[in-house]
TrEMBL record:
<dbReference type="InterPro" id="IPR029063">
    <property type="entry name" value="SAM-dependent_MTases_sf"/>
</dbReference>
<dbReference type="GO" id="GO:0005634">
    <property type="term" value="C:nucleus"/>
</dbReference>
<dbReference type="Pfam" id="PF00145">
    <property type="entry name" value="DNA_methylase"/>
</dbReference>
<dbReference type="InterPro" id="IPR050390">
    <property type="entry name" value="C5-Methyltransferase"/>
</dbReference>
<dbReference type="InterPro" id="IPR018117">
    <property type="entry name" value="C5_DNA_meth_AS"/>
</dbReference>
<dbReference type="GO" id="GO:0032259">
    <property type="term" value="P:methylation"/>
</dbReference>
<keyword id="KW-0808">Transferase</keyword>
<dbReference type="GO" id="GO:0003886">
    <property type="term" value="F:DNA (cytosine-5-)-methyltransferase activity"/>
</dbReference>
<keyword id="KW-0949">S-adenosyl-L-methionine</keyword>
<dbReference type="InterPro" id="IPR001525">
    <property type="entry name" value="C5_MeTfrase"/>
</dbReference>
<protein>
    <recommendedName>
        <fullName>DNA (cytosine-5-)-methyltransferase</fullName>
        <ecNumber>2.1.1.37</ecNumber>
    </recommendedName>
</protein>
<keyword id="KW-0489">Methyltransferase</keyword>
Length: 294
């Protein structure tokens, strides 16, 4: 074979496929597993020929030549590891929704039994040291911390576990100010309801206490993309027309270093979710470039 066979579980909008292209890695087959309806609409609009097996829990039923898989990638659900979970009191690690990590591990071990040379990458959020050590032990490698702010204008702290070596990239010093949209953005203006007035907090930002969102109007970096911009915390709000606005759909796409219009086949609310659950393409591409020399 000229290229690699990829299995991407919890694939989302196929950012892994975008990253492989940017890393100049030839792909023979890209098999994916994703159940989110709108994520699948986006992924299929760009890669209609990729095979989606759907529910990862049913992986033992898949008609797949497991020994042929060269690279397993995925980002298992992070809700019970995340900072947001800590705020709500639900930060219970592998005992919560993030326990789907064990599905990733089962699949990895199954492929290893057939192909000991399998490469793998797992992505997850910055988490408690105890949870991080658990994942290190299960995977047999230490997760490396990589904040997407090095390759984008988004602060997105993540851990990546791979069985090849790679170094952090040089900071590209990318500023949101160079990509911030202007003009008529009235469709993104925040409605002045009591809860949203509290979110904006007269533009004072997070320093004004719990319930206030960051003011990123003049910032170089926005905060981590979330699945709902109309919640606190979110990626930040921008001064607009006497009040504030949300990040536009294109700004959200660029924050994940995706082409503008990548999610144009879904609504703004749907795009928020799939982009918030997605990867930063240039971060993943950087990691993939280490495969040949790792």
């Amino acid at each position: 074979r000229d290229g690699m066979n990829i299995l991407a579980i919890f694939d989302g909008i196929s950012v892994g496929r975008v990253a492989l292209e940017r890393a100049s890695i030839k792909v023979d087959n890209y098999y994916r597993a994703e159940i989110d309806k709108h994520a699948n609409i986006v992924a299929s609009s760009h890669y209609p020929d990729d095979i989606n097996f759907g529910d990862v829990i049913k992986w033992r039923e898949w008609d797949l030549d497991w020994a042929s898989i060269d690279l397993l990638i995925g980002g298992s659900p992070c809700q019970s590891f995340s900072i947001a979970a800590a705020i709500t009191g639900n930060r219970n690690g592998l005992d919560g929704k993030s326990g789907l990590f064990y599905i990733y591990l089962d699949i990895l071990n199954h492929i290893k039994s057939l192909n000991p040379n399998i490469r793998f990458m797992l992505e997850n959020v910055k988490m408690k040291n105890e949870s991080k050590k658990q994942l290190d032990e299960y995977l047999g490698v230490k997760g490396k911390y990589f904040n997407s702010e090095l390759v984008s204008f988004q602060k997105r702290p993540r851990y990546y576990w791979t069985n090849w070596d790679w170094d952090l990239p040089v900071d590209k010093k990318i500023s949101f100010q160079d990509y911030k949209q202007d003009g008529d953005l009235s469709k993104y203006k925040v409605k002045e309801t009591p809860s949203r007035i509290k979110m904006w907090s007269n533009g004072k930002g997070r320093k004004n206490g719990f319930g206030a969102c960051a003011n990123v109007t003049y910032s170089d970096k926005i905060y981590c993309l979330t699945t709902k911009q109309d919640r606190c915390p979110n990626s930040g709000l921008i001064e607009y027309d006497g009040f504030c606005r949300y990040l536009t759909q294109n700004e959200l796409e660029i924050a994940q270093t995706l082409p503008t219009g990548y999610t144009s086949c879904v609504s703004y609310n749907q795009a928020q979710k799939v982009l918030g659950n997605g990867w930063t393409a240039d971060a993943i591409a950087h990691i993939f470039r280490g495969i040949e020399c790792g």
